[in-house]
Amino acid sequence: MFFFFSKILPGLFFPYPLFLIFALLAGLRLKAGRFKKLFFILWFTVTLGSSYVIAAPLMRSLESRYTPLSIPETPRVDAIVVLTGMVTPLSPQKDRPEFSSAVDRILAGMDLLKNGKAPLMIVTGGSGLISQLGEPEATVLRTWLIGQGIPDTQIITESNSRNTAENASQTAAIASNRGIKKIILVTSAFHMWRSVLCFEKAGLEVVPFPVDYYIPTEFPGIEAVFPHSAGMTVTSTALKEYAGILAYRLKGYL
Q1: 122 and 17 both lie in a single domain
Q2: Burial class of residue 177 (count of CB atoms within 10 Å of its CB; 0-12, 13-18, 19+)
Q3: Inter-CA distances, 31 with 23, 38, 52, Å
Q4: Which residue has the higher pLDDT, 106 or 18?
């Protein structure tokens, strides 16, 4: 019983759900009218978007587009391409990178390389900040890979690109100079659809290797239904990706 309530009560009394509860109570005190209707539309949108009920299918619609591969079943190609976006910028740690949850990208790329799926790895991506502060992420990851025992002759870095479209075009230029035609593309599962379209448009044959999944294969439990800040993060990430796909189509990148 204690275990049950230790999982359920935080779902009701942590700051985020408490804020939604008090916002609802405040909304009920509003005078009837257009503003009150708008408030409740916004409240229901935020509340549902914070729950697994909405966040999971929205994110899964992106993550399920490509079947995850095991390393043994992955074909051998000319190069492994890893998209950056896993290093926390301007970390106070100076002797090693501070990784985010997307660290699966570089770990999977390293495993593929060690298992002989390609003779080299291309790490593509510069600074993710508008001000371009700090060392380019591809450069940081190159240093880290060498520290993990990967020979520097097997690592190519591309540190000028700032988005997925530039990742693809800059990598395609490197590939053209080296006779690379077929690649294993490693990025987060939710980001793979847009990435594959960009790299294929750049003229490369792509084997998708999705990693960094947000949504489990089975329902995680009743506690996931309660509105939570993590649920809103998943919903926001998925909506941002769909917005990116739309913007890329309008721009002609896809």
Answers
A1: no
A2: exposed
A3: 15, 12, 32
A4: 106
Beta-carbon contacts of residue 137 (< 8 Å; ≥ 6 apart):
84, 85, 86, 87, 89, 125, 126, 127, 128, 159
Residue 196 belongs to what H/E stretch? Answer: helix 192-201
Global confidence as pTM: 0.86
Neighbours of 94 (CB within 10 A): 5
Assign 198 a pLDDT band (cuts: 50, 70, 90): very high
**Strand ranges (E), 126-202:** 155-158, 182-188
Q: Tell me which residue of 224, 233, 240 sits closest to 8, measured CA to CA.
A: 224
CATH number of the domain encompassing residue 160: 3.40.50.620
